[in-house]
Every structure is written in C-alpha cells, then in structure tokens.
Amino acid sequence: MNNLIPERSPRRLYRFFDWLRATSGGGWLGGLGIFLALWLIPQILRWLIGAQPVGEFALFNAVPAIFITLNLVVWLWMDRLAETALTDFGRMEGLPAERARALLTDFISLGPRLTRITLLFAGLAALVFALQVAPLNGISAPPSLDFIIFLLFTLLTNTFWFLAVTRMARQIFRINHLFAEVKDVNLFNLWPIYALSRYGANLGMIFIGAASVVASLFLLGTEPSSFLRPFATFVIMNSLAAALIIFLTPLVGINRRLRREKENVLHRLGDEMKLLFDETEAAIKAREAGRIGEFRTASSALREQMEAVQKIPTWPWNPGTLRNLFLPILLPLLIAILQRYVLTALGF
After folding, report:
1. Considering the domain boundaries, does residue 2 fall inside one?
2. Is residue 15's pLDDT more than 80?
3. What is the pLDDT of residues 231-251, one digit of tens each?
4. CB proximity list for 300: less than 8 A, separation 6 or greater
5. Domain span at 273
6. Is residue 25 over pLDDT 80?
7. N or C, where is the chain less crowded by C-beta within 10 Å?
8. Residue 258: helix, strand or coil by DSSP?
9. Residue 47: CA count within 13 A, CB half-sphere
C-alpha cells in the first residue's frame, strides 16, 4: 500500500470485508452464510445444553444475526456513499487522485487508538446488558454456559453497534473540519459542497433506522408489552434526538462556510462599488458626461451581482433535504403509534 494512503481501520474488519467480497455472488452468499451461522449457532447451543426445548425457536436468538448482518450491509453501503461524497468534494477542491483516496480512507476509518477504546466500552456495556437482560429471557445466572453463550453474542452485537456509532460521530466532526478547509467555494454551483451534507443526512436516516430496529427487536424479543412502557418511549425519543444532531451538524458547517464566502464576495463587490462611485464623482467634477453613462451601466450590473449573491441561501433547505429530515423523524413515531394500537387491541 502507498505510504501516503493510510490503512483502513478497524483493520481486521476491513480484511473481513475484503474476504467477503471475494466470495461467490459478490459477497451475498457469504453474507447469507454469516446470517444463518449467527442465527443457528446460539439456538443449537441452547438446545444442546437443555436451556430450551429442541425445535423451539426464541426471537431473541435471532437478534444478533439480524443486527450484525444489517450492520455489515449498512457499513459497506455508507462506505460507498462516502466515496461518492468525497469524490465530489475532491473534484471541487481540485485534489489529486492519491490525496482524495487518502482523504477517503481516513474518513471511513477509526484509527487504532479509538478502535481500542470503543471495544473496551463495548465489552463493558455488553457485560452490564447481559446481566440485566438475561433473567428476562429465562437465561441461567452466571457462570452458567447458557449465560456465557448469551454474553458472547451480546458482546459481538455490541461491538458492531459501538464501532458504527463511534465512526458515525467521528465522521460528523470530520465533515465540519473539511468544510473549514475549503479554499474556494463557487456560490453559483453548490452541488459539490452539498455532497457532504447529503452524506450527513444519510447518516441521520441510517442511525434512526438502526436504532428503531434494534429497539424493536429487543423489546419484542423480551416482551411485546414492553412497547407500552416508558422505556420504549425513552429509546425512541433519544434516537430521534441523536438523528437530529447527526442531520443538522453538517448543515451548520455548510452555513458557516457559505456565510463567510458570501461576506467575502459582498465585501469585494462593495469595494468595487465604492471605486465606481469615486470614479463617477470624479467624472462629474471633470464634466466628462460621456463616461457617466458607462459608469451608470456598470453600477447597475454591479448591483445586480450583489442582489444575486445576497439571494443565495446559506442553509440547504431544499425539498430533498427536508424529506431526509422528516422521514426518519416521523417513521418511528408512526411505527410506535401503530404498535401501541395493535398491542392494545390484542390485550397486551
């Protein structure tokens, strides 16, 4: 690998992705195999140790398989979206291909130190979670084999979730850092600079969707009536708040950068207008009537330029942006309302 391009991190995860892509079907068959293994292994182990009747399936045994498989798919999908966004950004900045590639690698990576810290917190959270949730699912207290199996798969699930959320938070800060480094902004072609904003909007949608799926699987896997409890509302509202933060943070960076660029352009046009007025005044004093008409035409054109710049929005509030904002907010609320109605009608 070129020394100018850092290695993708977490290294082992990306090596696994490379292996997965090399499998048959472009990775889809390998992904299906991973899903089946993650679903059946804990289920079979519980049958073997007698923790669950043979042939009986528990929903919570499928949670790690569903969540980890979805996480892998989303991770790779976000990498592809990031590549598109950073390519547009690099084209806007006129970056060499090698520099743009290094920027993308850094953007999608976590770094060794941050990865280790994330894994430590994921392990601690998995232990606390397993100790609290295991009794709800009829799992024997530690150090039973049943509990160890549950803890291992909880640790695996938590690891992917913590890595994804940590990377998401890092990318949000990196987006604003990239905005601050933009050298030249074409106020009349904002598509490239909105590329990172679109990526931030997708991050918000992915986060709220993933959080809603995880909460739904966990609550339904333990007790359907859990949706009627305050905990469900707490999870949904916190997910909405996090999604709003993820969505709005890149927009704040765009607004700050565009306002600064507009101020610079208006300041330059203002200096030109002042110079034009001075020249017009000098022509009037010198009684050079022929030049006054030229100055009048030039000042009109200059005022039109200033008005055009002033009308350029610094917030990218177009219909697509608003759609990306309201869909992740309204969808979980509609699902929660529908679930509450259905569960109440069923007598839960």
Report:
1. no
2. yes
3. 555 656 666 666 677 777 777
4. none
5. 265-310
6. no
7. N
8. helix
9. 11
